[in-house]
């Protein structure tokens, strides 16, 4: 039994195997899963593994590794096989994690309060005050409810005898819970039958508890609580998780520039003005949070935040200064501290540790170096663990010198051979391999001295076999953690949930506080930060810019593939217009480039990421803007946006391939437009998105018509169909006129017709409409640029443009001047909006108008 899937799997004798017992038999809690996987064909297994990778790409899950060539686009990796934990084992583990979270919260309260632990000799003062993690400005800061540690994560590893040991405590801004939930959502779709049959416990209650903790403890003075999620920004390694959590919890995702301190209170800069912030869930390191009192060179924090916390006007989760507990040097002192603070034995000890700042510990370390792992004592130190048994004579001598020179900076830990678990071969082969793992478990405060532990977590997998450093930064992968329900007397699973989390079940609507007043629950507006408003504005502009360029390139490409002589005449005209627009870059020195040269230029305009004007460039900017407002987008909208950049990454080596790419991009842009109209609330953020779209379309049409009108009349007539198709108005023209395009009709449709959504007049009208609404809602003077342009446009008479009219030349000159004014108006409106509403960003989100 189980031979087909397990025949290539080996369990190392010196390590605990999560799936196989010492006698080589499957552990009982793994049997249901392996039974089901045995019934899947190799092709089905490969297909499900591929579905997992597709889901990660569609969701935009990334873990940014700074030295990785893929940079911010490095996809998150999830193995198809979960880590499975039996119910009875989890019950003990959960209880121990709760105890440790309570203990560490008590340690923080003491060290930033009475400091009795130091006075009683339970902690060396040098260990506390000798590290950067202890923040003196936070001394005697009393957080709301007395909770310093709202969120806690713990890294666990299992030794060869099956015992769980603490590897690290995560107390500053614990990461990974969002990835754990996303992993679960994907696995719900990948292995739904196994999750149902094994009664895997759901994760959502943890996020309900997190939401309730922050909203209940926030110092609101009777106001509806506003909680924000503070992120370092889109270049942080776990930014995609920050965006996901903000979307899930319904918290605005903000950067430091979005917040300000006034009168010892924190405020969010929204499009409607300042709104008080009552709680901050931070993913920013302690000392970066406040450049005024903590780290003066920080450009990521909020000046005055420490004073706001000192005054009790804002909850910060976790409390500033909590990062000091991440020092591995503390592990050896916690058993005695647990007895003092809780009156209990420490249920979940750390791996045996020796802080070398104590002379006996240093002497033991030097004598047993081959059996130990040397680690930095403080989180601020940039040092990888050093395994003593791997050192040659020279390396060992250098390490000993470092230990003797700065003993307080090092911790020695017992070398624990991490347990191993099965992973599916990445090559697509139907076989399992063993990899070392560690488990991260999450807990959240209940606000009353206890903690709620997530019934699951995040398993991290070493990138190579027999590797004892498990790190996502070094290319590790992840697993979902399945905690099984209790078994009843018949041996069946009970508890848990037969319908695990799905993408539909997660969202801010699920996060409600049952004790809130009804009036607080009914809201008709959304707090849109200035930062989010700016990114929505540029998201609208780049979506429209991409669509406009794709349509123009598609129409021009079609001209290059048709060999009739009249098409060559049209091609000379349209290529001239495109060159003036900066789109085509012919390699030929001739006045009229060859078909081949034009097609090469079109290919560059599609896929060259270094070109200022290309589909690839616009898509990159579009995705960047959308990435920063992900919490404002529905899951379908985000998926549609996230699928767009890869469209131009494949090699394009023929006109047919170019046409296929352009069609795909245009269809995707149409989908985004549909989401904007039918999938978003009509709040201020949506209005700025629509304003961005209409400004971009106005600028594009005005520039295009201005350049087109500079052609000779005969060349204009030859290219009228191209102009209509490029402007997405050819169908309207054919339905309305049912005749070959003629100059006056085309001019009326693209410039004067207010019923055509692709006309100049329509853009003027819609911009005036949205800007008037913004002025009424946000209380500023209306910008009169669109109204001024509309008045000028209404002064024209269409017959004046007739080629036979004596007024045609003057009318054309006036209209071209108006088109240039409309283009300039795009710059002016953008500057006015930025001046009135938008916060300067740490990195630009736009290039050009």
From TrEMBL:
Boundaries of every DUF403 domain copy: 529-838
Gene3D superfamilies to which the protein is assigned, alphabetical: 3.30.1490.270, 3.40.50.11290
Region (Disordered): 491-513
Protein name (record): Circularly permuted type 2 ATP-grasp protein
Native source species: Herbaspirillum rhizosphaerae
InterPro entries: ATP-dep_Glu-Cys_Ligase-2, CP_ATPgrasp_2, DUF403
Residue ranges of domain Circularly permuted ATP-grasp type in the record: 82-462
Pfam families attached to this UniProt entry: Alpha-E, CP_ATPgrasp_2
